Amino acid sequence: MNGVHDMGGMDGFGKVAPDLHEVPFHAEWQARSFALNRVMGSAGEWNIDVGRYWIETLPPAVYLSSSYYRKWFLRLERLCLDRGLVSEAELASGRSGGPGRPLKRQPLSGSQAGAAVSRPNHDQPPRAPAVFTVGQKVRTRKIHPRSHTRLPRFARGHVGTIERIQGCHTFPDAMVEKGIKQGEWLYTVVFDGRELWGPDAEDGTSVSIEAFEPYLEPA
Amino acid sequence: MPNDHDHDHHHDHEHGSELSEMQLRVRALETILTEKGHVDPAALDSIIETYETKIGPHIGAQVVAKAWADPEFREALLADASKAISQLGLQQKVGDHLIAVENTPTTHNMIVCTLCSCYPWDLLGLPPAWYKSAPYRSRTVKEPRKVLADFGVTLPNETKVRVWDSTAETRFIVLPMRPAETEGWSEEKLASLVTRDSMIGTGFPKAANEATA
What residue ranges of chain B have pLDDT lower than 50? Predict the structure, then answer.
């Protein structure tokens, strides 16, 4: 979807402000919300792609005015409501109104849960050989799907070069739109700054994206 | 398209405490999910402790220092970072699809995630607030040199800047250039020069005379 989350190339947000006092969490609720997301994310009720989509579909004004951990919390609250894990009445009262339904998987539990949190593997068996080869020129497709995509707007309809083949990974677009684990070849595609930004590009700059094969066509 | 449930709850302040809206809402959801048996509070504590005390840039710094000290490891790291790092026997397991990109005298690499906040948590811990911010996410792909200037970093004009947008489940770490006058140093001493920002590409390692180990 063409949402405000797709920020690459936007102007007007100001300077990057490095933190003077860095801590992992600035308030206890941020830490609790972070960990709640990790635990509930392990229950098999949704996956990383669906989770991202539910952040992207926050109303634009909410997205832009919420901190990172507030967005995470709002996503979790909305997903729990949507999946019937909690009710509006329960959220309003702050108490459970009855036993929960069985979850698809047993979520992380116990005092060793932290050690068990790790990034999952996203490899999928290829359905066909990779279409593109390293060094080949490709053009990113002009697509504007209303559902989830990982092809950023700034990189659509541009000519770049395949630099690496990263393997065959779960295709996030199909995961969110159709709920299926579809394997697609993943490529690092590099674009010259001038190709993306024309005369407004800075000298001697290039940008790569990680592009799934359905995002690409021969140039 | 999911419905918008971003409603405002109006909770009374219980026990006279001054709790923010977010404290109350997070506590409510945690309480409900715990009462239903879905969430074990010990798991929450353990996850928080892990990210507060165990996982952080010191892991990435060890990896970079080893790559500086050991040419064979450097090659293995650049070929398959997940595999090379998992063979180091670090306490915390690293994920798959990690990619190390090497700075050279002619090319400087920077990592960004324009669509969300993808970041190599396993090597660097949770991302700093600026990495997740709209200014960094919006500007890095268009004007990386001006973003570097916000960090006080200036590159020679002839040094090319390469930005890696983390749009899939691949995760990137920059292998910065080894500082001068560090020949023969131990990995531990080298690691003390590796800054978090140098592994994202928004900074450089410290100079040899700034070593702490």
Answer: 1-17
Q: B41-54: per-residue pLDDT in tens? A: 999 999 999 999 99
Q: What type of residue is A48?
A: I
The CA-based diameter of chain B, rounded to the nearest angstrom, is 64
Do A32 and A98 lie in one domain? The reply is yes
Nearest chain B residue to A48 by CA: give it.
B169
Residue A141 shares a structural domain with residue A208: yes
Radius of gyration of chain B from its Cα atoms, rounded to whole angstroms: 21
Give me the helix-helix angle, A48-56 and A28-41, nearest 10°: 130
B93: chain A residues, CB-CB within 8 Å: 118
Q: Contact B32/A96, CB-based, under 8 Å?
A: yes
The CATH superfamily of B55-210 is Nitrile hydratase alpha /Thiocyanate hydrolase gamma (3.90.330.10)
Number of domains in chain A: 2
Q: In this structure, is residue A130 part of a structural domain?
A: no
- pLDDT at residue B9, as a whole number: 40
Asked if B136 and A94 come within 8 Å (Cβ–Cβ), the reply is: no
Residue B149 is predicted with a pLDDT of 97
Domain holding A54, by residue range, is 28-116
Distance CA B199, CA B194 (A): 8
Q: Is the ipTM of this complex over 0.85?
A: yes
Q: Is B46 a catalytic residue?
A: no
B186 is catalytic: no
Contact assignment for B160 to A206 by CB distance below 8 Å: yes
Determine the Cα–Cα distance for residues B126 and A35; give it in Å rounded to an integer: 12
Whether A187 is covered by a domain: the verdict is yes
Tokens of B77: 């790291």
Tell me which residue in A70, A122, A172 faces B97 most closely, judged by beta carbons.
A122
User: What is the residue-averaged pLDDT of chain A?
Assistant: 96
Same domain, A39 and A85: yes
Task: Please check whether residues A143 and A109 belong to one and the same domain.
Answer: no
How close does chain A come to B40, measured CA to CA in Å?
A: 5
